[in-house]
Write a structure and sequence with these properties.
Length: 602
């Protein structure tokens, strides 16, 4: 069985980590004062940290001196030094906390800015991009991306930079004050410690990834099964689902155990290296004291300094792993930001000026993917205020016409114009402003019915919303619901029937009141009776509007000014209802069939 590793485990080489970190900087720039202040606090805190062993040494030496010559000096406490010792610890804590507090704003603002930027970019990207990706995947990348930004900032300011500063200070003290052995042993131990930690972490990261992969697979199996609850029950497949879930969990369990036990190994190894290093340095220091080269205070100092150095290194394994992930996540996020929308406003894009609202498809060819052409040489004109109907079998390319008119895609051949303005030359916002659609599959926001209708026109008044609902023949239905207009429609609008959803969509379009209307099988989910009622109101709405009606039930479009019959991406017949019946072609055939069906129904 294959394990679907997270994309974050992409090889390190493909990424541009340094470049990505540079791209992060502008997000910090707006708060450069705070950043500087935080860095300053960080330096001061570190000076205090390194000062502690120095003062400790002085205290020990003073006490030693006092004990050796009690008569001449007198048994007094080195109060000044003790006070200094305490103050240094206080200063350390104070500046560390100050740094956190000051930096918090920077960090969260950077997260907010980048999240907004990514989401805006996602809206700019084309429909094609979104159809190709699962929304869950996108929101995961977004979340991980912003979190990575935060963790990288965190680790840099709270761990990596302070530790480097501390190393530098300790190196200066050891090299200037003591035998080079001490510095060599200290940094030798640190080096071994770092190499060991990275190597073991690298090795055990594999278990961790495996564990995460199984974990997300298990949860997606559980969620997928539960989402399809009804289907699972229809087929009595509970056991199958549970077994699958349990099997994945058992693999998860194995990886989790390996991950934890390898962690124990890592910790033990780290402890052993420190113990060994400290022992060696103590042997040298003790020898130095016996030889008279060093005081007792010096021994305390090298010991304290070395142990202190390892405190931040204790998190090295976690930081190494998190930084690697964060870098990968950030890379994914920046790659997402670099994705160019396929559909963009041209540089000279002007707002669409609608005068007569004449829509024209001129020899349009189109394919979603290069290897399969969907539309072939489609030409049609919807004259101002007229109603053109398109009929044809499922998959003929009817809905594609509507998507092209909205410019979700660009035509591959020919052109589409509104009042002689090519869609590619006008701004997308102005184009979509001018067109309203009742789509084939209406999806609603999981909010109130009121919100869903008002969505077309967020500043519409209560009365406007109700009037639109009345015209769409759904007002009565809404009024008799216990919560009325405040009824929440459920995820994707699932708590409403298909027909109810379609009527909400119709109400929406009525409220938007654009010059050009598209009804894509707008009444397909309605029974004949509701259909007739709505058709009447649609007719009222469509009056004075240029209208494209895509229909499957021919009875709904007999009054159209022109009817186009589409098949396999081509217009095969064209004329008024009467003309098409008389020419006895595809349309006449369909008409006969549907008439018989209707007769049977009745
Ligand atoms: N995003 C897409 N990518 C690839 N093919 C698509 C896409 N959307 C629709 N198609 C294909 O285009 C053809 C026409 O689809 P459509 O216009 O929805 O037909 P209909 O006439 O039923 O409304 C269908 O064969 C469909 O499979
Ligand atoms: Mg369709």
């Amino acid at each position: 069985m294959y394990v679907n590793f997270r994309p974050t485990e992409a090889p390190h080489t493909e990424r541009k980590d340094l470049h990505n970190i540079k791209r992060m900087l502008p997000f910090l720039w707006s708060y450069r004062g705070r950043v500087l202040f935080a860095l300053l606090s960080l330096m001061l805190a570190k000076f205090a940290t390194v000062g502690v062993p120095l003062v400790l040494k002085e205290i020990v030496d003073q006490l030693d001196l006092v004990l050796k010559n009690p008569q001449s000096i007198g048994m007094v406490l080195p109060l000044g030094l003790l006070l200094g010792y305490g103050s240094l610890r206080l200063v350390n804590v104070m500046f560390s906390e100050l740094r956190d507090a000051v930096f918090a704003r920077v960090r969260y603002r950077a997260m907010r800015d980048i999240s907004t930027k990514v989401v805006k970019h996602l809206y700019d990207l084309s429909l094609n991009f979104h159809l190709d990706r699962r929304t869950g995947g996108i929101s995961r990348d977004l979340e991980r991306g912003t979190r990575s930004l935060s963790s990288i900032l965190n680790y840099l300011t709270f761990n990596i930079i302070p530790t480097l500063i501390e190393f530098a200070l300790v190196a200066i003290i050891l090299f200037s004050q003591y035998d080079p052995h001490f510095a060599l042993i200290t940094f030798g131990t640190v080096t071994i410690y770092i190499i060991y930690t990275m190597a073991v972490t690298e090795w055990r990261m594999h278990f961790r990834h495996e564990m995460n992969a199984y974990d997300s697979r298990a949860s997606s199996q559980a969620v997928d099964g539960l989402i399809n609850y009804e289907t699972v029950k229809y087929f009595n497949n509970e056991h199958y689902e549970i077994n699958r879930y349990n099997e994945t969990l058992s693999q998860w369990e194995d990886s989790a155990v390996k991950s934890t036990s390898s962690m124990a190994l890592l910790n033990f190894g780290q402890g052993a290296i420190i113990a060994l290093g400290v022992m060696v340095i103590m042997i040298y220091a003790a020898q130095g004291v016996l030889d008279g080269d060093m005081s007792l205070g010096d021994l305390v100092l090298v010991n304290a300094m070395m142990l202190q150095l390892f405190i931040p290194l204790g998190f090295l394994g976690i930081i190494y792993r998190s930084m690697k992930h964060a870098m990968a996540d950030m890379d994914l996020m920046f790659k997402l930001l670099d994705t160019q929308p396929e559909i963009q406003d041209s540089d000279q894009a002007k707002p669409l000026v609608v005068t007569d609202a004449v829509v024209k498809f001129d020899h349009v060819d189109f394919s979603y993917h290069a290897d399969r052409q969907i539309l072939h040489d489609v030409s049609l004109i919807i004259p101002s205020g007229q109603k053109i109907a398109v009929v044809g079998p499922s998959g003929a390319g009817k809905s594609t016409l509507a998507r092209l008119l909205f410019r979700f895609y660009d035509v591959t051949g020919g052109s589409i114009t509104v009042d002689d303005q090519d869609l590619r030359q006008v701004s997308q916002v102005s184009l979509r402003e001018a067109i309203g659609i009742v789509p084939q599959d209406t999806v609603l926001f999981n909010d109130t019915i009121y919100h869903n209708i008002q969505y077309a026109h967020p500043t519409a008044t209560d009365e406007d919303v109700r009037q639109a609902a009345r015209l769409a023949n759904i007002h009565q239905f809404i009024e008799q619901l216990p919560d009325g207009y405040d009824t929440v429609v459920g995820e994707r609008g699932l708590k409403l029937s298909g027909g109810e959803k379609q009527r909400v969509a119709i109400a929406r379009v009525i409220l938007k009141n654009p010059r050009i209307l598209v009804f894509d099988e707008a009444t397909s989910s309605l029974d004949s009776h509701s259909e007739q009622v709505i058709l009447a109101s649609l007719k009222e709405v469509a009056e004075q509007h240029t209208t494209l009606v895509i229909a499957h039930r021919l009875s709904t479009i007999v009054d159209a000014d022109q009817i186009l019959v589409m098949d396999q991406g081509r217009i095969v017949e064209q004329g008024t209802h009467q003309q098409l019946i008389e020419s006895k072609g595809v349309y006449a055939n369909l008409w006969e069939i549907q008439k018989e069906q209707q007769a049977e129904e009745e």
